[in-house]
Write a structure and sequence with these properties.
Length: 89
């Protein structure tokens, strides 16, 4: 009913002993306009979940159409196994 939803790349990590990571997320949305707030949904099984829980921080990046290939790649690879920043250049 809510399709299409915007796909975003969430960057996290690099703080408190965590390695930087990217996660592709389709579960995002506006929560409030004043003050500006949005929501993301990350399953506990995902590698980025523990990073975000540990650091308490993340950045939502809106990829352009030119980044579609890399956005998809980040969605099928796990940060447990791959350095996504190095892999995407």
């Amino acid at each position: 009913m809510l399709s299409p939803v915007p796909v975003v790349l969430v960057s996290c990590g690099g703080l408190k002993g965590t390695k930087p990571n990217l996660i592709t997320i389709a579960w995002t949305g506006s929560v409030c306009s004043d003050p500006p707030m949005l929501s993301i949904a990350v399953r506990p099984e995902r590698h980025s979940h523990s990073i975000i829980k540990t650091t308490g921080e993340f950045v939502v990046n809106i990829p352009s159409a030119a980044l579609a290939k890399w956005t998809d790649w980040c969605g099928v690879m796990s940060g447990r196994d791959v350095d996504k920043f190095a892999g995407t250049g």
